[in-house]
Write a structure and sequence with these properties.
The structure is a homodimer. By secondary structure, chain A is mainly α. Chain A is 72% helix and 4% strand. In chain A, helix 4 crosses helix 7 and helix 4 packs antiparallel against helix 9. The interface between A and B is large, with 36 and 36 residues. The structure holds a DNA duplex.
DNA sequence: CCCGGACAAGCTGTATACAATTCCGCATCC
DNA sequence: GGATGCGGAATTGTATACAGCTTGTCCGGG
């Protein structure tokens, strides 16, 4: 059947991940549905899914809101990332085939020159996510991968800001993690992944804390 | 405003967690909505949320289905549990107050005598989940707790079956985990939690593997 | 000047109607 | 006998209408 609802879903999903909605303001269903060229019914279905995924917040009788972006939330989501991704890389060390590992090495060398100052931050974040998801995929556990993906979407906006000052060292950190995987050293891989994420957590949280008021300035 | 949609949501959620729907058969929206005394609109909203939570599966143009219950899924979800709960207890050791720990000791002694052969399996599973969620709560990370809760709901049905033969040792295992927490021994707590979940994983997976065909026998 | 209540406008929650699609049984053909 | 195509019934996808709640404003009282 037609994919109108999925189209709406993807659009609203992106809008939510990009924080195109003002926090603490209800999302006007009629207006948004007109804007997206659909009626309220499929829009509400999409927003219900996004609520379950944590990208939106729902208050009965009041409507849907963008998830509030607080330093606490960022800390919590990074902790979740840490738990999931350390488990994932541990499984990856055990289960990955040599060809899978070769593919990641290829990816790293292919993209090495793009980790430069000229590259847009969003592009860097995209590459970063892709690398992490490749590793997570080697765990062979799609549930794990899904949860990691979801967590990414909820903090992507922060990462666009936080990544600005970290472009240069991201690639070398990834290489460092990858080498432990390549050497089939589960402990080192896990430790390096944990350190990597903890570092980003500290930075992202600091930035959100500092920019807390700025982030909430109306964006229209 | 009225909470009709939330009522429907809770009911369908329970039905899905209890596997009252036949797998591989589409859920008839009109029929179910009549049965629940609501119209299709709030029912579909509820089912969309449950789809995002992983309790239902949605195929465009065909409708909603119960999540398929396979040995692979059970393994994957238990791995997720392991990742999340080991992280949670590690955080709990660091952050829990002495009074929080006392509350858990109280809970364990209060419920000790109910871990007996006469108690219904569902009740045991409920107590088990409550214990684990109390510990997870001490992590101070609501996102972590939410994900753990969700994972529970997706494997609860299996646990009802798998728990039958494990009633006696569950309580002592919990005590063992708790003591490491009480001693503020993060490593021991994490290790014991991991072992605990791995054991259950192996058992549950085995049971699903054995009962695979039986579970899918039409239940009408 | 501030607070409180009532009214009005707007928005959300739900039911229902209809269009589009899928599904299933049956007949037909190879 | 098995595959294929067709048509009607059933089911899903979406729009729309309306009821009930929420919210903001305005007016009156303290």
């Amino acid at each position: 059947m037609s994919t109108s609802v999925d189209l709406v879903y993807e659009q609203v999903r992106q809008m939510a991940a990009n924080f195109e909605f003002k926090p603490a303001e209800r999302i006007n269903e009629s207006e948004l549905s007109k804007q997206l060229g659909a009626s309220r019914t499929p829009l509400r279905e999409a927003m219900n899914r996004l609520t379950a995924e944590g990208l939106l917040v729902f208050e009965p009788g009041r409507g849907f809101f963008c998830q509030p972006l607080t330093p606490e939330l960022v800390v919590h989501l990074y902790e979740v990332r840490e738990a999931l991704e350390t488990a994932a890389i541990r499984a990856a060390v055990e289960r990955a085939g040599d060809d899978d590992i070769a593919a990641i090495r290829q990816f790293l060398s292919d993209t090495a020159e793009r980790y430069a100052d000229g590259t847009p931050t969003k592009e860097i974040v995209r590459l970063d996510e892709e690398f992490h998801l490749m590793i997570a995929g080697l765990s062979g556990n799609p549930e794990l991968v899904n949860m990691i993906k979801l967590t990414y979407e909820r903090i992507r906006y922060v990462r666009w800001i936080a990544m600005r000052e970290r472009i240069d060292i991201t690639h070398s950190a990834h290489l460092h993690i990858f080498e432990a995987l390549e050497n089939r050293d589960a402990q080192a891989a896990e430790d390096r992944m944990r350190t990597h994420i903890k570092t980003h957590n500290a930075e992202a949280t600091e930035i959100v804390g500092k920019a807390y008021s700025n982030l909430y300035v109306p964006q229209h």
